[in-house]
Design a protein that fits this description.
The structure is a homodimer. Chain A is of the alpha+beta class. In chain A, about 35% of the residues lie in helices and about 20% in strands. In chain A, the strands form six sheets. A six-stranded mixed β-sheet of chain A has the order 1-2-6-3-7-18, sandwiched between helices. In chain A, a hairpin with a 2-residue loop joins β4 and β5. The longest helix of chain A is centred in the C-terminal third of the chain and has 21 residues. The two termini of chain A are about 30 Å apart. At the A-B interface, β10, β11, α6, α7 and α9 of A face β10, β11, α6, α7 and α9 of B.
Chain lengths: ~475, ~475
């Protein structure tokens, strides 16, 4: 097992304090892509990332889209005969609410017990930034990289990457690459570097139920006017059967089974369901009967309520018959489920089960395709060696319950294989209060990525 | 048919502008009993009502309770041999939210098309105030009333009159009365004065479902961790069967059937279900199969969702698996259902149907007993004559879907018959945005009540 090259390691060690200071600066920008009141912050984060790329030695530009801007960094110094590798990350973050559940403010980075707490620390600013600094180490310590590099940072990952596919398509020639590297996922356990074999897709809906024209007195109207909140509950209750299986007709028709060998490998991973339950703080685990937790998370689709709102939700009692009720409902998808097909099934199902007396609208807010990797070839081998060198142990192959919709787009538009190698950890609270990233993983991950460039240069990933 | 005595009518006509000005003053006080931030306003409204009673010629005092204060006005000038009649009303109001749906501000009384728009205009400040002014007419125009009078105004009607029963019990000797009059209901139709034969009771619950210890990433945990919002929906969906009948075991065991004659009389009332539907703005009516709308509203219990809250409810999409979900659920009750018994049935039912993997708590926020009137005797006859005189037409006997929990308390503690005669109108938006009271009903109702005192003096309501 080779070690991380000393010149790169020395550079990153020497500049450790500045790197952390810069990371904190980025994390202080509340670039919440879902909230229009943060549009200026999101734009500021894009400019910040572009400047950071320039400081690292790349050329960088900020490209407006119909949504939030895309940042492109480029270093083409390896010449036209060398391979080109594209690094993707995102500078936008999830909303930080509920703010009162954060131990320290969401946008004031704070280190406690080796954990860096901040919205975006691990998802994905911290992981994007360690790539920028790994590139900087090469370009500052050696003045060059062994391959050409493109960095693509978007600002709409947390709202479905709505405009990214169009951007990649419109700039396909410029973005042409032999491989794509993404760090927006987690290691399976501390000290256990991980390469991802799959991602779930997403189909995210809002269900709006309109009852009476306005809120009514529940005494004067209750019993005759159909209650939209009760109607919504009855609709949501039809989404699963008694065995935790999704009851939307046709929902599982395109689910591809996993090879027995992969299911077997999953069972060998060091995973304690009771520890997972305790870490989630859940009274008991549930879900679809007949599957282990890792199978449920990595290989099976879901249908979840993400939000509910209707009527009076304040202190005390108000005897109101609400005019309307709303649910946010999202399905995690697995290969080969298609978000558009799931949208059609969901809409047909809700229309079929919706009670009389209310008007029900299902809106598809966004979707992303599921993905499964090919676990072979020079890109995979280079990553395996770099991770082993930096972390001192062979990486494991894992699945991922979350979604990175753009992965499918890269593969489809650029035709390049995608490597997913992330440095988060279980319990990192991505999308929740007290999101954190391990400082050790940031530091070691940055060195693993620095080494990865050497491996890519040595072994080549040029597509034939 | 006798007319309203001319001296009382003349007094009220002369002072019309001042009476309206004073009413507006009362309506401007945002005495929202459900919200602790309005405690000072609620206290101010109590003092205002007490002063108004004093100005009318009664003695008045404000009595603190563990909640909001009770106002007592008294005029004992008819002497110990004359009957005593107690008038009850409430000076607290429902929350005004959602504020953006009010055409004019909730606490800025505004007259449009003969309707007085303001929170509390009809429920119940306007109706309480017309009683105060009817008493003032007698005491100012004649210097006396034919019977002794007690006015009891509370500030917790909209939150379940929690401390009123204890207050009445503690002051039973002082509050001893031969009859109780309450105006906190509506006429069946414009121009059709109405005497109420029944009220529904209430059992109001909050259901809290706790899943994981905090909000989780729906990708990283979804499929294995039980979703509390989905669990809540599944619980709520068990509350009714497919025929709109409440499916809580034992729920109907104590429902007393109505006499066939009363059900028959209900069918003769001028009621258009399509008009009711259109006025509610509901796409179609629903509820328990096999009953007319008036039967559903007046004679059958309900189980309604009044509010829902869980997870992310803002703009756009957030892929969160919520830590908790909350529903406000209330049951309207009919004789002889008992709120405490319904609480026990609800708690047992929810415990039985709650999914594994979540912790479910059912809290009984407040309750009130249903009530049915005796439609005979001198009190009923006096009301019938006074209403006929003021409105120029015989009153009808109607039911009421709403709840006035204190009615049962008066009958139980004071042993006095209760007369419910109200001057609201269908569509008055009580508990909703744009609550209004008909100015004509205010004016004519005030005169009917002024005349009622003469009728009570002439015919007597002294209990034997």
């Amino acid at each position: 097992m080779s070690a991380v090259p000393t010149d790169l390691d020395a550079y990153l060690t020497t500049h450790d304090a500045r790197i952390q200071r810069e990371l904190f600066e980025l994390l202080r920008i509340p670039s919440v892509s879902a909230r229009s009141e943060h549009d200026a912050d999101t734009a500021r984060a894009a400019e910040w990332v572009a400047q950071s790329l320039r400081d690292a030695g790349l050329e960088a530009s900020v490209h407006p889209t119909a949504g939030h801007p895309v940042v492109v960094g480029e270093w083409r110094g390896a010449g036209p005969s060398a391979p080109t590798v594209l690094v993707y990350g995102h500078y936008d973050v999830q909303p930080a609410e509920p703010l009162e559940l954060w131990t320290s403010p969401a946008f004031e980075p704070t280190v406690r017990d080796g954990k860096l707490f901040a919205r975006g620390s691990v998802d994905d600013k911290g992981q994007l930034f360690l790539h920028v600094k790994a590139l900087e180490a090469h370009l500052k310590a050696r003045g060059k990289l062994p391959v050409n590099v493109i960095v693509l940072a978007e600002g709409e990952e947390e709202v479905g990457s709505e405009h990214l596919a169009a951007f990649i398509e419109a700039n396909a020639a410029r973005l042409q690459a032999d491989a794509v590297i993404i760090s927006d996922s987690a290691m399976f356990a501390p000290g256990l570097p991980s390469i991802l074999s799959s991602l779930r897709g997403l189909a995210y809906f809002q269900i709006d139920v309109q009852g009476p024209a306005q809120d009514l007195h529940s005494g004067s109207y209750g019993g005759a006017v159909v209650n939209p909140a009760m109607a919504l509950a009855r609709i949501l209750a039809t989404l699963h059967d008694a065995h935790g299986r999704i009851a939307i007709p046709g929902f599982y028709d395109t689910v591809r089974e996993w090879p027995a060998s992969v299911r077997q490998q999953m069972k060998t991973l060091p995973f304690d369901e009771e520890h997972f339950r305790a870490e989630a703080g859940s009274p008991a685990l549930g879900g679809e009967n007949g599957y282990t937790v890792l199978e449920q998370l990595w290989t099976r689709p879901t249908c979840e309520v993400n939000g509910l709102l209707s009527g009076y939700t304040g202190e005390g009692a108000k005897t109101v018959l609400p005019a309307k009720a709303m649910a946010k409902v999202s399905c995690r998808l697995v290969p080969d489920q298609d978000p558009a097909a799931i949208e059609a099934l969901m809409k047909a199902h809700v229309a079929r089960v919706a009670p009389k007396g209310v008007a029900v609208t299902v809106t598809h807010l966004h979707g992303g395709r599921p993905w499964r990797a090919e676990l072979a070839g020079p890109l995979f081998d280079a990553a395996r060696r770099a991770l082993a060198a930096a972390f001192g142990t062979e990486p494991v192959i894992t699945g991922e319950g979350g979604s990175i919709p753009v992965v499918g787009d890269f593969q489809r538009i650029l035709g390049a294989p995608v490597l997913l190698v992330g440095f988060g950890l279980p319990g990192e609270n991505a999308h929740a209060p007290d999101e954190w990233m391990s400082m050790e993983n940031f530091t070691t991950g940055m060195r693993a990525i620095a080494m990865l460039w050497d491996e890519l240069g040595t072994n080549g990933v040029r597509r034939t």
